[in-house]
Amino acid sequence: MAFYPPADLLEAAARRAVALRRDLHRHPELGLTEFRTASLVAERLATLGLGVKLGREVMDSASRVGLPDEDELERCYRRAKAEGAPLSFLPALAGGHTAVVGLLEGAEHGPVVALRVDMDALPIHEDATQAHLPAREGFASVHPGVMHACGHDVHTALGLGAAEVLSGLRHRVKGTVKFVFQPAEEGGRGAVPMVKAGVVEDVDHFVAIHIGTGVPSLSACAAVNGHLASVKLDATYRGRSAHAGGQPDQGRNALLAAAEAVQALYGISRHHAGRSRVNVGTLRAGSGRNVIADHAFLEIEVRGETEEIAEYMRRRAEAVLRGAALMEDLEVEIRVVGRTTTADSDPELARIIAEVGAEMPGISVSAVPHQAGGSEDATYFMRRVQKRGGKAAYAVIGSDLASGHHTSRFDIDESDMAWGIELLARTLLRLGSA
Amino acid sequence: MAFYPPADLLEAAARRAVALRRDLHRHPELGLTEFRTASLVAERLATLGLGVKLGREVMDSASRVGLPDEDELERCYRRAKAEGAPLSFLPALAGGHTAVVGLLEGAEHGPVVALRVDMDALPIHEDATQAHLPAREGFASVHPGVMHACGHDVHTALGLGAAEVLSGLRHRVKGTVKFVFQPAEEGGRGAVPMVKAGVVEDVDHFVAIHIGTGVPSLSACAAVNGHLASVKLDATYRGRSAHAGGQPDQGRNALLAAAEAVQALYGISRHHAGRSRVNVGTLRAGSGRNVIADHAFLEIEVRGETEEIAEYMRRRAEAVLRGAALMEDLEVEIRVVGRTTTADSDPELARIIAEVGAEMPGISVSAVPHQAGGSEDATYFMRRVQKRGGKAAYAVIGSDLASGHHTSRFDIDESDMAWGIELLARTLLRLGSA
Amino acid sequence: MAFYPPADLLEAAARRAVALRRDLHRHPELGLTEFRTASLVAERLATLGLGVKLGREVMDSASRVGLPDEDELERCYRRAKAEGAPLSFLPALAGGHTAVVGLLEGAEHGPVVALRVDMDALPIHEDATQAHLPAREGFASVHPGVMHACGHDVHTALGLGAAEVLSGLRHRVKGTVKFVFQPAEEGGRGAVPMVKAGVVEDVDHFVAIHIGTGVPSLSACAAVNGHLASVKLDATYRGRSAHAGGQPDQGRNALLAAAEAVQALYGISRHHAGRSRVNVGTLRAGSGRNVIADHAFLEIEVRGETEEIAEYMRRRAEAVLRGAALMEDLEVEIRVVGRTTTADSDPELARIIAEVGAEMPGISVSAVPHQAGGSEDATYFMRRVQKRGGKAAYAVIGSDLASGHHTSRFDIDESDMAWGIELLARTLLRLGSA
Amino acid sequence: MAFYPPADLLEAAARRAVALRRDLHRHPELGLTEFRTASLVAERLATLGLGVKLGREVMDSASRVGLPDEDELERCYRRAKAEGAPLSFLPALAGGHTAVVGLLEGAEHGPVVALRVDMDALPIHEDATQAHLPAREGFASVHPGVMHACGHDVHTALGLGAAEVLSGLRHRVKGTVKFVFQPAEEGGRGAVPMVKAGVVEDVDHFVAIHIGTGVPSLSACAAVNGHLASVKLDATYRGRSAHAGGQPDQGRNALLAAAEAVQALYGISRHHAGRSRVNVGTLRAGSGRNVIADHAFLEIEVRGETEEIAEYMRRRAEAVLRGAALMEDLEVEIRVVGRTTTADSDPELARIIAEVGAEMPGISVSAVPHQAGGSEDATYFMRRVQKRGGKAAYAVIGSDLASGHHTSRFDIDESDMAWGIELLARTLLRLGSA
Fold first, then answer.
1. For residue A136, pLDDT beyond 90
2. pLDDT in tens, D267-285
3. CA nearest A281: which of A209, A337, A340, A343?
4. Which of C38, C217, C408, D211 is deepest in the core (most CB within 10 A)?
5. Which residue in A has a C-alpha nearest to residue B30's C-alpha?
6. Distance from C-alpha of D382 to C-alpha of D204, rounded to nearest angstrom
7. Closest chain A residue to C304 measured between Cα atoms?
8. If DSSP codes are grouped into helix, strand and coil, which group holds residue B274?
9. Overall average pLDDT of the B181-187 stretch
10. Axis crossing angle, helix C7-26 with helix C152-168, rounded to the nearest 10
C-alpha cells in the first residue's frame, strides 16, 4: 500500500517554498554567478540535515565554457555578499563554481535516486507594471536586466521543498537521494562540469524537472523527449574605426559585417531530417555615431533535432560568419561557449511517475511522450545515467502561465508548487524502494 | 606697422595651454555633460578678468536635442564634482547646459570679434599601450570608453590661451572679443541652442577653428569650406521576445529588423549632385542568446554636400527604417537628435588671417579654400553671422597626427599649440582693429 | 483466391511503358503546356478502348492559376504539333487545358476506383554528359531548360501501363476504373481545376503515386503522409530606371529591393508547430549593367506541415515583400499562383495495397506511414474523396535514383517499372472487387 | 574671315541625318553587334568618297572584352542581313568587329583631325505608348528589349552629317579628317581595341561628342571633364540544386548568395577622395520555383572619380562577391568585361570650339569646364592623343530631352541636329587650318 506523506509536513514545505521562490525571484542571478542562490541552497540543505557538497567538489572547473569575465564574477560575488548570502558557503563558490549537491542517506540500503533542478536566471528586463504579479506584490527583480523568466527560481524552491519533505520522512527512505542544484542551464554550461565531476556516476534513477512549458496547471508530463541539441557561439568582429564623414573608406566596418552575418544566419536552410533553429540573441557594435564601428559582438545559438542537425547548423553558421568577415575585409573570432545534447526519457521511469501521480486526487500525470520545444543540458546527465544502465526522465510540472517563457511578464501559478513538491517527494520515495 | 605680442606672454600662455590640454584629455566628457570642462573654462575666464556668461544665459534650453537621459546627466555631474570641477560655476551648468562665453571689452570702441571652440569628447576607448603618447606620458583618459579623439581638448586650451594673451594686451584691444566655448559639437547639438540664445547676434567677425584634419604641422588653412550638412537619427525597434527554441514564430525579431535596416541604409544610392554619407555608428540589440530580441537601438548619421542631399539621405533612411519594421512586423521610432548645416568661409576674412600668418616666420597660412571632409555645427554660427552681414571663417590649425581623427590612437603634435595661440591672438587683435 | 494477371500481358505493357517513358522524357513539357503528352495519352487510352475525357470537360478553366502567358501557350502548342502530337485530341487541350481522364467500365457493377498520375516536367537543364544515362542512351531532353527531373514521365507511362493491363482483363474488372492524368503538379496548379470539374465526385477508392523519393528499388510505401501545404507566390517589383553613373538617386532600384526581400524571406522564423519551408526559386531583374533596374520578378514558394503553418509563412512572406518595397520606395505586386494542401493516407487502403504487394515475390510493400518531404496537390483529390466518404492513399513506387529529385542528373531504374505496373494493376483489380 | 558652309549643303545633310537617325533608332543594335549600323555607315562613307577602313583593320581583335557569345553574334549578324545591311561591308564586321573609320584627305597638307562618335544601343525596352514620340511617329525600336536610349543613333547620324558637309567642301579642307565610328561604348568595350589598332596614333586634334546629358537645346559645352573611371564585372555563382521541400539543406543556394552580394555591393563605403558608384544592373538566378537555385549571374559596374577610386571599388566588390560565396559554400567566377578611364578636355581646343560656336547666331557654346556624371571610353582615345602631344576635347551638343538618358522614353529634340552638324563641320574645318 502506498505511503502518503503527512499533510502538515507538505503544507509547511510548500509555504516555505513559495516564500523562498519569491526571494530568489527578487534576486535573480545569471549562470555561473548564482552565488547568493547556491549558498542559500547549501545552507538550507545543511539545516535539513543533508550532506552538502558544493563548488569544485561537484563541478569540474576546466570543463566550464562561457564563463563571465573576472570583473563580472567579482561584481556578482560582492553583490551576493551584500544581499545576505550565507558566508559559511559563499567562498566555496568563488570564481563561478556555483553548483550544489545535497545527499540524503535513507534508513535502509537501496538505489541512488537523483532529482536535478537548475538555479540561474536570464538577461531580461522584468516588467514593472501593475499588470505583472511579481511587480504588484513586490518581488520583481531588483537586479536591472536580470529576471527569472524561465522559472528556475521555482525549480530551486521545489527541489528544496522535496528535500524538506524527505528529510522529515528519512526513516522511510531507502537508498540515497541526491538533490542536484545545477547552475547555468541557460547557455548549456552547467551540466557538463557536474557530469565530469562524477555527480551522477552512481545514480540509478534520475529525474529532471521543469515548470510550465505549455502544460496546464494541475497536470504533469513524465516523459518529455526531443530536446534540441544546441551549440552556443560567440562571434567577435574586429575592424578599423575611421571618421565616417571624412575617411569612410579607411574604415573596416564591423557593424556592417555583423548585420550581413545576422541576415545570412537567419537564412541558413532548414534541414530535411528534422527541426533546426538559429538565433542571434544579442548584438553590440560600434562606439560612436560618426565613427565607422571597429567592433561587433554577437551571441548566437543554433539547434537541431539531432546532434547531426545541430552540427550542420554550426558548420553553416561558421561559414556565414567568416563570409561576412571576408566581405568587409576584417577579422572574426568564433568561440563555442555552450552546448546541449538530446536525450529521451525512459518509458518505465515515466510510467512510475505517472502511477505516483494517479494516487494524487485532482492531479493528472501523463506518461505519454511529450515533445520539447527548446534545449536542456539536463540531457547530459540523462545520457550519462542511461549509458551506465540507469533510468532517466525529464518531467514537466504544469502551471498556467501569465506569459510565455523568456518574456518580461513570465509568471507561474504558485498554487502548483504544493502538489509539485508532493509529486516529487512521492516519486523519490517510490523510486527509493523501486 | 604690425604689433607683436611679447614673447614671454605667449610662452606662458602656451605652457599653461599644454598643461590644461593634458588635464582635459585625461578627463574627457561627452556632449552636454562637459560639466568639469565648462566650469574649469568659466573659472579660468573669470580669473583672467573676462566677463563670463554660462549655462542657460548662452544656451536656449528648449532648442537642445539628443540630450542624455537624467541618470546619465546626474552621473556625469557627480563625476565632475568628484574630479574637482569648480563649485562656483558648476550649478549653472546643471541639466546639460554646458556652454560658456567669455567677454573681453577692449580699451577702445570697435567691432565685435568672436572665436569659437568646442569642448566635447567622443565615445571611443583610448589606446592604453605604450605606442600611444598620452598613455605613455600618463594623461590618457581615465573615463573608460570616452576619449578626446578629435582634439576638442586642444581647441579649448587654444581658446583659453588666446584669451590669456589678449587679456594681457587689453589696452591694445579695440571693440569686444567673445570667446565662445561650445558643448556637444559631436552630434551637432551645441551650436543651435547657442545661436538661438543670441550669442552671435552682435558679432562682426567670427572665426571657428579645428586642429589637424590632414593639415601638417606649422601650417594653417584659413578658409575651410564644404562641411557636410548632416542629420543624426536615433532609431529604436520594439518587437516581442519569445523563446528562440520553443516558440520562435511568436517573436518579433528587433535584432533582425535592425540588421536588415543596416544593410539597406548603407545601400542608399549615392547622389548625383554631390557627396553623401551614411553611417550606423552603434547598434545595441537583444538581451539573451536564446531569446528572440525584442529591442534594438541604432545611432545613425546621414550627410550631404548640400542641405538638399542631406535631406534626400534622411528621407531615404527613414523609408529604409520603416521598411525593415514592416518586414519584421514590429514598430520603429525614429528621432532626429542633431543636425549640422553647410557654410563657406568669407574670402576677405580668410585673407586677413593669411596675412597675419605671413608675419609669423616659419608658419604657412593659406587662404585658398580647403574642402572639409566632415560635418560641423559651427556652420550654424557662420550662417547666422553672415546673414546679419558679418564675416565668418573656419580655420584649421595644422598638426601632424599620430593617427586619424576618431581613432583610438589619435594624437596631435603639442608643439603646434604655441604658434596656434599666437596666430589666433594676432588675428583677434587685427580683426578688432579692422 | 487471388487472380494473377498473365505474364505476357504484363511484359508487353512494361515494354511499351519504358519506350513511352523515354519518348516523354525526350519531349518534356512544363505545367499546363503538356499538349504533346496529354494528346498522346488520350490517343493511347482511346486505342485501348477506354472512354476518354479531356480538356475543359475534366478541368474547370476558371480555377486555374499560374497559367503561362498567351505567347508561351501558343509556342508550346505549335511545338507539340511539330513533334507529332495526335491532331484528333490536340485542339481540345488548347489554351492550357491539358488534363485527361480514361474510363474503363468493368464487366460487373462495383465501386469507382481511381489512379492518379501527373504529366508535367521541370524548368531544369538536363545534364548532357555521358555520366547521365538518358544522355548516353539518346533520350535526354531536346527542349533546352526543360527536364523530367521528378519522374512524371514515368508516372504517365505507369498509368498507361496499368490501363493496358486492365483493358486486357476487362472481364475481371468490377465497377469503374478511372485513370486520372493530371497536368501541372509542379506549382500545385493542376489538381484543383480537376477536382472542381468533378473528376473524383464519384470515386470510392483513390490512389496517387510517385516514383523514387528515397524509397529503394523493389519496394513500395503504400501510405505516404505529411505532404507539406504550400503556397506559390509570384512577386513583381516595379521601380524606375535611371543612369547609374549620372543620376543614380533618380532611380528606384527594383533589383536591390528584390535582393533585400530574398534575404529577409529566407530569414522568416521557423515555426514551433512543425516543418516550414521557403524558397525563392528564380529571380530576374534589370536590363542593363549601367541602368538602375526598374523591374524584378521572383518565383517564391512557402510550405508548412499544416495549412496554418503554410499560411503563417505566406503572411510573413507578404510582409517581407512589402517591406522591401517600402525600403526602396517602389511598388510590388504579389500573386498567388499555386497551392497544395495536406492529406493523410487511409490506413485501410494502404493495408490493401500492402497485401497485394505481399502476393508479389521479391517485392516489399509497407503500409507503415512514411513521412513525405515535399508538397503534392494530389492532396486536393485525397481530401475531396475522403470528405465524400471514400478512401485515399498516396503510394511510392521505390526506385534507386542516379541523383536526387529536381537535379540535372535525376534518373530512375527503369527495371522498377514492370513490377510497378503489376502492383498498380493488381491493386486496381482488388479495389474493384473490394 | 571665317568660312561659312553653304546653307543648302547644310540643310541637305541635316535632312538626311534625321532620316538616318530614325532608321537607326528603329533598328538598334547592342555593343559589338552593330552589324547593320556599321555596314550602313561604311557604305555611306564610301558613297561620300571617303576612304573606309573597318573591322579588324581598325580594331584589335584580342583587346576586346565582354564579347557576346557565338550564338548571339550569329543571331544579330543574320538579323542585320535580313534588315538590309549592305553586303559589301557586312562580312568584314563578322565576329563582333563592328568599328568603322572614314578618311577624308583635304586639298592641302595639314594636321590630322578626328571626330569620334559611337553607334551602340542599350538593353532597354522602348516605351510603346503614344506619349513617346518615336512610337507615335513609327520609328520606335523593332528589336524587343533593345533601344537607343542614350542617343548614339543621333551621334552616328551627326558624324555622317558632318562627313557629308566636309566631303562637299573638300577643296577647303586642310590635312586629314578622320571620322571614327566606335562600337560598344556602353560597357566600355569599343575604344580600347580601336586605340590598340592605332586609329588615333597620328591624330593632332580629337573631338568626341555626346547629345543631351542635361545641356539644353541650342547650346553646347566644349569641355566636358570628370568622366568616371569604371570597371564592368560579370559574376557567376555556381551552386547545387536540390528539392526545396524535401532536401533544402542539400542545396547550395546561388540565388541567395547573389542577393547577399547585391546588398553588400551597394553597401560599399563611399570614398573620401571623390565620387564613386556601384550598380548591379542585372541579376538572373535559378530555374524553378521549387528548386534551390544552382546558378546566378550578375552584371556589375563600379566607377570612381579617379582610377584609384575605381580600383578601390573593384577591389571591394571582389571581396564582397567572394564573401557571399563563402557564406553559401559555393563558387563564384568574376570576370572584368569592360573598363573606362578618366580624361580632361584641353582648354585650348575647347576655346576654339566655343569660338566657332560664337559665329553661329542663336547658338551658345561654352568653354567652361562641365562636370560629367557618367563614364565614357572616349577617354582612352583622349588620353592616347594627349599622351602623344595632341589635343582632345569632349563636347556635348545640347538638346531638350523628353526623358533622361537610359530611360524607356528617352528622346531628343531633332531640331538640334542641324546646328549640331554645322558646329561639328565648322570645327573640323577650323581645326584643319589650326
1. yes
2. 999 999 999 999 999 999 9
3. A337
4. C38
5. A288
6. 11
7. A270
8. strand
9. 95
10. 150
In this complex, the residue of B253, B263, B316 whose CB is nearest that of residue C269 is B253
Q: Of all residues in chain B, what percent carry a pLDDT higher than 70?
A: 99
| Cα–Cα distance, B40 to B181 (Å, whole number) | 11
Residue A372: predicted pLDDT:
84
Q: What is the pLDDT of residue B1?
A: 41
Q: Which of B372, B232, B374 is nearest to B302 (CA)?
A: B232
Q: What is the 3-state secondary structure (H, E, C) of chain A?
A: CCCCCCHHHHHHHHHHHHHHHHHHHHCCCECCCCHHHHHHHHHHHHHCCCEEEEHHHHCCHHHCCCCCCHHHHHHHHHHHHHCCCCCCCHHHHCCCCCCEEEEEECCEEEEEEEEEEECCEECCCCCCCCCCHHHHCCCCCCCCCCECCCCHHHHHHHHHHHHHHHHHCHHHCEEEEEEEEECCCCCCCCHHHHHHCCCCCCCCEEEEEEECCCCCCCEEECCEECCCEEEEEEEEEECECCECCCCHHHCECHHHHHHHHHHHHHCCCCECCECEEEEEEEEEECCCCCECCCEEEEEEEEEECCHHHHHHHHHHHHHHHHHHHHHHCCEEEEEEEEEECCCCCCHHHHHHHHHHHHCCCCCEEECCCEECCCCCCHHHHHHHHHHCCCEEEEEEECCCCCCCCCCCCCCCCCCHHHHHHHHHHHHHHHHHCC
Show Cβ contacts of residue D142 under 8 Å, excluding neighbours closer than 6 positions: D26, D27
Q: Would you state the cell numbers that stand for residue D408, as one nine-digit string?
A: 524607356
User: Does D264 contact chain C (CB < 8 Å)?
Assistant: no
Q: Which residues in chain C have Cβ-Cβ distances shorter than 8 Å to A264?
A: 263
Assign C302 to helix, strand or coil.
strand
**pLDDT band at D208, cuts 50/70/90?**
very high
Q: Which residues in chain A (198-227) have CB-CB distances under 8 A to chain B?
A: 213
pLDDT, average across residues B41-56: 97
Global ipTM = 0.82
Distance CA B222, CA B215 (A): 11
| pLDDT higher than threshold 60 for residue A261 | yes
User: Contact B326/C329, CB-based, under 8 Å?
Assistant: no
Specify the amino acid at residue A351: R
Q: At what angle do helices A416-432 and A7-26 cross, to 10 degrees?
A: 120
Q: What is the pLDDT of residue D1?
A: 41
Quick one: cell of C134? 538518358
By three-state DSSP, how is residue D237 classified?
A: strand
- pLDDT tens figures, D114-157: 999 999 999 988 999 999 999 999 999 999 999 999 999 999 99
User: Is A405 in contact with B122 (Cβ distance < 8 A)?
Assistant: no
Calculate mean pLDDT across residues B175-203. Answer: 96
First-to-final CA distance of chain C: 14
What per-residue confidence (pLDDT) applies to D407? 87
Domains of chain C, with CATH numbers?
A: 7-227+343-432 (3.40.630.10), 229-339 (3.30.70.360)
Q: What is the model's pLDDT at position A279? A: 97
* Of C142, C137, C216, nearest in space to C412 by CA: C216
Q: Which three cell numbers stand for residue B191?
A: 551650436
DSSP states of B174-192 as a string? EEEEEEEEES-TTTT-SHH
Mean pLDDT for B154-168 is 97
In D, minimum Cα distance to A249 occurs at: D271
Per-residue confidence (pLDDT) for residue A3, from 0 to 100: 63
Q: Is the CB of D256 inside 8 Å of chain C's CB atoms?
A: yes
The C-alpha atoms of residue B163 and residue B13 are separated, in whole angstroms, by 9
Q: Residue B350 half-sphere exposure, CB side, CA atoms within 13 Å? A: 20
- For A230, A268, C269, C341, the CA distances from C309, given in Å and listed in that order, are 24, 19, 11, 11
